Amino acid sequence: MKLQVQDIKKSFGEKEILHGISFEVVSGRAMGFLGRNGAGKSTTIRCLMDVFRQDSGQFLLDGQVFKPWEKRIGYLPEERGMYQKNDVLGQLTYFAMLRGANKADALKTAHYWIDYFGLGDYKKKKLETLSKGNQQKIQIAQAFLNEPDILVLDEPFSGLDPVNAQVFKDTIANFVKEGKLVIFSSHQMSYVEEVCDDVTLIHEGHILLTGDLKQIKRQEGQDKLQLSLAEGSLEALKQQLAAAFAKVDITLVNNSLILDTQGTNLQAQLMAWLAKEEVKLRSFGLYEPSLTDIFIQKVGEHA
Predict the structure, then answer these.
(1) If we measure between CA atoms, which residue out of 115, 92, 121, 86 comes closest to residue 105?
(2) Distances from the Cα of 236 to the Cαs of 229, 240, 257, in angstroms?
């Protein structure tokens, strides 16, 4: 499957929130939709799910107008909306039936996902009696009911401890392997970096970057080099390198030196110099910036 977001605009009153955004999501590759709070992530997803109607533009699935009510979709909205006074099993069964399952199948899928997330002891408990983390797991479980073909998750890691976050990451990875179409929005870029094949960065209703995450990292690294030391002073090494290689721009970042060779092929010369000086390296290779570094840079350029 291929989901195409084409030139979507959305305003509330006189304020335009989405300024003609476009990107693609394909099945079998998780896509992380990134941005700061208020960037337009949730508005985009609500337009996609027909909670809001966009002012212009369209959503296409395999070339046809996307109609979410015609597809098996697991949807986790940012603002949670389950029933605090109802028991866990009853309401998950109810949600499964709302999505077209008969009573027997609805019970089966509700039992499965409650047990999957380790909450079997809480099936008959009211949602309000569960901890915030367990409530979040139930919210997530409802998105997986009835084996959806498309998963749309808005800030899914909110409230999860590291153990449950890992369970959830594994679950997303399994769905991706099965060829499902997965899109989730987040401002927690470390999670996206672990899970996603593709990313789309949105800022103030504009798409700053979209595409394959590995390719983006290579492109944004601009063939810079990165080294770290097994022992010794990075500051001292920085000064030595600056004296030996005047054309190399050297930056100290997070216990590493980033070497910008300004487009010249100096890797072999650098390696020879490091060996000659008997520098004890921990690592040396091409620099790949973190997703956070890339986002901060792109936001700065946009500003």
Answers:
(1) 92
(2) 11, 6, 11
Place of tokens 């195409």: 4
Tens digits of residue pLDDT in 210-264: 999 988 988 887 778 888 888 888 888 888 888 888 888 888 887 888 888 776 7
The H or E element that residue 198 is part of is strand 198-203
61 within 8 A of 71, measured Cβ to Cβ: yes
In sequence order, the 6+-apart residues with CB closer than 8 A to the CB of 75 are 49, 143, 152, 153
* Burial status of residue 201 (CB atoms within 10 A of its CB: 0-12, 13-18, 19 or more): buried
DSSP string, 202-258: EETTEEEEEEEHHHHHHHHHTT-EEEEESSS-HHHHHHHHHHH-TT-EEEEETTEEE
pLDDT of residue 281: 86
Q: What is the rounded CA–CA span in Å between residue 188 and residue 228?
A: 26
The pLDDT tens digits of the residues spanning 97-108 come to: 988 899 999 999
At which residue do the structure tokens 């690592």 appear? 283
Mean pLDDT for 131-156 is 88
Q: What angle, 0 to 180 degrees and rounded to 10, lies between the N-to-C axes of helices 132-143 and 162-177? A: 10
What is the DSSP annotation of 147-188?
--SEEEEESTTTT--HHHHHHHHHHHHHHHHTT-EEEEEES-
Both tokens assigned to 207 = 């798409």
pLDDT of residue 61: 94
Return the half-sphere exposure (C-beta side, CA atoms, 13 A cut-off) of residue 24: 11
Q: What is the pTM of this model?
A: 0.79
Q: Can you identify the CATH homologous superfamily of domain 1-71+149-212?
A: P-loop containing nucleotide triphosphate hydrolases (3.40.50.300)
DSSP label at residue 29: S
225-229 and 73-76 beta bridge pairing: unpaired
